[in-house]
């Protein structure tokens, strides 16, 4: 019976491409491993898989009795619902250390870089395994996505060097040009249901016993939201109530202006205002320079909840 590799719920490109890349590496090393996913793919991820000729990983929600590797997260609330009944073989991640625990030793690769695929590239190098051209292309795209084409404050020299190396393997002359193609796909939001947009890149976080949902939409021009921003805000409110969340937040990130407008629905807005030292206006605020949920949004909010 093979092992599995799976990322977080509402998978993004890093989560999916990590599962594909790690499963190939582990299988090559003599450990049959299959990539899987916990949710539907975003348009950007579909673009990447089609660009490099990959099928969508298996949609698998239950892992009881299975052995698996966790990629792109280490928070229980983001993983499979029955994770306690599975055997965790390893965690490969670039976020803060979460609350997944194991009863036996496991393989851990956790680095403060911009993308999980950067870490997996390090793993290929460590094991001296050649990366296939198609996998290199998918990994490169995931890094470009997570680092917002190197604009995110999470981007490191390691991420940039990995993109350069992977682009050479994949035969991509201009990675940034391909990155802009990806973000244009991300920006195509017309005729998409509000709930699908809110959940396109959405994660729940346990913050001192408070469930907080944070989504992000990264586009090349924030003006595309002007006609339906109120609808997005209304769906955020419904999502908060349905999930019994303390707060729901949606980052509308303009990658060209390098900042984000936060749409907020909360039972206590003062916590949000304290976290970012801002004043919400009708549940909204623009913050220059905010590009990263992982580095700029989650940590100050976690601190604010801890200080409550």
Note the main attributes of this structure.
308 residues; alpha/beta; inorganic pyrophosphatase (n-terminal core); Diaminopimelate Epimerase, Chain A, domain 1; six-stranded parallel beta sheet; five-stranded mixed beta sheet; globular
Explain briefly what this protein structure is.
With 308 residues, this protein is α/β, with parallel strands linked by helices. The chain is 38% helix and 21% strand. It has helices at residues 13-28, 43-51, 116-127, 133-146, 157-170, 175-186, 194-198, 229-242, 269-276, 293-306, and strands spanning 3-6, 33-37, 58-59, 67-71, 87-93, 107-110, 202-207, 210-219, 247-254, 259-266, 284-288.
Question: Which helices and strands, and how do they pair?
Answer:
Blueprint: E1 3-6, H1 13-28, E2 33-37, H2 43-51, E3 58-59, E4 67-71, E5 87-93, E6 107-110, H3 116-127, H4 133-146, H5 157-170, H6 175-186, H7 194-198, E7 202-207, E8 210-219, H8 229-242, E9 247-254, E10 259-266, H9 269-276, E11 284-288, H10 293-306
Parallel strand pairs: 1-2, 1-4, 2-3, 4-5, 5-6, 8-9
Antiparallel strand pairs: 7-8, 9-10, 10-11
Description:
Residues 179-305 form the DHHA2 domain. Keywords: Hydrolase, Manganese, Metal-binding. Its EC number is 3.6.1.1. GO terms for molecular function: inorganic diphosphate phosphatase activity; metal ion binding. The model has no long low-confidence stretch (mean pLDDT 95). The radius of gyration is 19 Å and the shape is globular. The protein is of the alpha/beta class and 308 residues long. The protein has two domains: 3-184, inorganic pyrophosphatase (n-terminal core), CATH 3.90.1640; 194-306, Diaminopimelate Epimerase, Chain A, domain 1 (Roll). The chain is 38% helix and 21% strand. The strands form two sheets. It has a six-stranded parallel sheet with strand order 3-2-1-4-5-6. A five-stranded mixed sheet has the order 7-8-9-10-11.
């Amino acid at each position: 019976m093979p092992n599995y590799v799976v990322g977080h719920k509402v998978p993004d490109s890093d989560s999916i491409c990590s599962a594909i890349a790690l499963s190939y590496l582990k299988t090559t090393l003599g450990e049959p491993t299959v990539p899987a996913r916990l949710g539907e793919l975003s348009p950007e991820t579909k673009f990447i898989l089609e660009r490099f000729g990959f099928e969508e990983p298996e949609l698998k929600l239950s892992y009881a009795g299975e052995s698996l590797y966790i990629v792109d997260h280490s928070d229980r609330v983001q993983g499979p619902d029955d994770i306690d009944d599975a055997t965790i073989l390893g965690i490969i991640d670039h976020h803060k250390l979460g609350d997944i625990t194991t009863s036996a030793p496991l393989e851990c690769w956790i680095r403060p870089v911009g993308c999980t695929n950067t870490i997996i590239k390090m793993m290929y190098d460590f094991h001296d395994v050649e990366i296939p051209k198609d996998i290199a292309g998918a990994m490169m795209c995931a890094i470009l996505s997570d680092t917002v084409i190197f604009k995110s404050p999470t981007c490191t020299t390691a991420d940039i060097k990995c993109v350069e190396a992977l682009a050479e393997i994949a035969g991509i002359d201009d990675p940034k040009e391909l990155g802009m193609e990806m973000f244009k796909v991300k920006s195509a939001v017309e005729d998409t249901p509000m709930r699908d947009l809110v959940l396109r890149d959405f994660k729940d976080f346990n913050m001192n016993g408070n469930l907080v949902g944070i989504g992000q939409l990264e586009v090349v021009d924030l003006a595309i939201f002007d006609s339906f921003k109120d609808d997005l805000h209304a769906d955020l409110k419904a999502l908060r109530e349905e999930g019994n969340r303390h707060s729901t937040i949606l980052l509308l990130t303009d990658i060209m202006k390098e900042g984000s407008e936060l749409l907020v629905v909360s039972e206590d807005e003062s916590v949000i205002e304290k976290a970012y030292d801002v004043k919400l206006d009708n549940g909204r605020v623009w913050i220059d320079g905010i590009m990263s949920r992982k580095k700029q949004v989650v940590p100050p909010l976690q601190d604010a909840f801890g200080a409550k």
